[in-house]
Design a protein that fits this description.
457 residues
């Protein structure tokens, strides 16, 4: 275990490269999470038993211990690869070893991406590009800034791209307590695959009853606990299958299967082939060799700039919230006495903050600018006042925006941070005041006590 008091330099746990990929070897990393952003072309990706095609502008997670390979059917594909050492990052995030990241639907599960999900994706892509510049450019000396960016990126991945949110796509909110419990159990399973792992063991470990744990697990996973354990065993077995000369019997025993026939059955279920057939297929892939090159900083920066302009530079520049963000960026360099006395306020549903995008017939707030703005407020440690026009809450689009934004803010910044924000419901009539009170009570319950104000104008 990593000493929780150790704080590593970002250069020790964070890497970023821009690579032209033709074909990689089949490989895995024990502690590293890799995020691959496709800048040009289309990339084919094998991760464990899945093979996905990642188009230009999209990204994919390669989790630690995943057996993976990358190749392009067009000859080559340009990607950015951001790598994070999950073991070293555990000083800031507990149970990282039990977390699996994902940003695409599980086979057989439909996932409807919302406007806010789309903006979060672009925000994450923007972080990936910024990481490369900070690591390789002149700003690489600012370790504090880089560390904040890395922590912010992992935080966003934890709450937006956690595998759990893609198991039951129609249920996006899961309490943090349940998520933490799931991650602890998942880590325990990975660390004890060759042991007999039963429901009683994990229930006792979590100090809960077997019935309670079974119900909680059913709510979070689409596999019964016993099948999940065998699923993890099969994933681990692929490493032994492709990277050692061990026999199928030895692999079965090391992975914790009581009988080799159960190993065959489970492997065929997930991989669609017998172990020996799968091994031959990917050893043959290895024989085709590797091709690719890492770009130098100047060329990589040019390609990343081109990608940014094509896919990400669409934040509306003429809205008030974006102007406020730019002003905050400037004041970040002012003396501390000014910042200590600053209170930042923004009007969520002001016409000056609406984008050209619509939902349910209503123009929506400019999500990208709001995300930039709140993140800047958070980094500077400023007090925030959020003005919410009660008249806007009558429109379904606006009320959904408010609920979604508050849920996401809880996930990204935490309830402790949100309790420092002041929510001002601006009302023009008693009817609006009653409407605002409904949302204010809901918000107060969620925050377990918050700064809620009703402003009658």
């Amino acid at each position: 275990m990593t000493d929780k008091n150790i704080v590593y330099s970002p250069s020790e746990y964070l890497k970023a490269e821009v690579i032209k990929i033709g074909r990689t070897a089949v490989r895995f990393h024990l502690n590293w999470l890799q995020i691959i952003l496709v800048l040009e072309g289309t990339l084919r990706v094998k991760t464990s038993y899945e093979i996905n095609e990642i188009d230009e502008g999209e990204f994919i997670f390669i989790n630690s211990c995943d057996i993976y390979a990358l190749w392009s059917e067009q000859g080559s594909c340009l990607v950015e690869v951001v790598s994070l050492d999950m073991d070293k990052l555990s000083y800031s995030f507990e149970s990282l070893a039990g977390i699996r990241f994902r940003n695409m639907p599980i086979k057989g599960k439909e996932f409807q991406e919302s406007k806010l999900d789309e903006v979060r994706k672009k925000t994450f892509q923007r972080y990936l590009i910024e990481v490369y510049s900070k690591l390789n450019g002149e700003s690489m000396l600012n370790e504090n800034s880089l560390n904040k960016l890395a922590v912010r990126m992992i935080s966003l991945a934890l709450y937006e791209y956690n595998y759990l949110y893609y198991v039951w796509p129609d249920v996006r909110y899961i309490s943090s307590k349940k998520v933490e419990r799931f991650h602890r159990v998942a880590r325990y399973v990975k660390d004890n695959l060759n042991q007999n792992i039963g429901l009683n063991d994990v229930a006792q470990m979590e100090l809960v009853g077997k019935t309670y744990f079974t119900q909680m697990w059913k709510e979070m996973m689409n596999l019964p606990f016993g099948e999940y354990v065998n699923y993890e065993r099969v994933l681990y077995s692929e490493r032994l299958l492709l990277f050692t000369d061990k026999t199928i019997i030895d692999i079965s025993e090391e992975c914790g299967f009581s009988d080799v026939k159960y190993y065959y059955k489970n492997f065929k279920h997930w991989y669609g082939k017998k172990p020996v057939e799968w091994k031959k297929e990917w050893l043959d892939f290895q024989l085709k060799g590797v091709s690719g090159e890492t770009l130098g900083f100047a060329e990589a920066k040019s390609r990343l700039t081109g990608f940014y302009e094509k896919y990400l530079a669409k934040t509306k520049m003429n809205n008030r919230i974006y102007e406020q963000y730019l002003m905050l960026k400037e004041t970040a360099y002012f003396n501390e006495s000014l910042q200590k006395n600053m209170i930042v306020s923004f009007d969520l549903f002001s016409p000056k903050n609406l984008s050209d995008e619509e939902s349910w017939g209503q123009k929506l707030p400019e999500y990208s600018a709001i995300d930039l703005f709140i993140n800047q407020v958070h980094e500077m440690g400023l007090e925030l006042q959020m003005q919410i026009r009660a008249e806007g809450l009558k429109a379904r689009g606006y009320s959904e925006v408010l609920k979604c934004m508050l849920e996401k803010s809880e996930q990204y910044y935490g309830l402790k941070e949100m309790k420092n924000w002041e929510f001002q419901f601006v009302c023009k009539s008693l009817e609006e005041l009653y409407e605002a009170k409904f949302y204010g009570d809901w918000l107060n319950d969620r925050l377990n006590g918050g700064k809620i104000r009703y402003v009658l104008v």
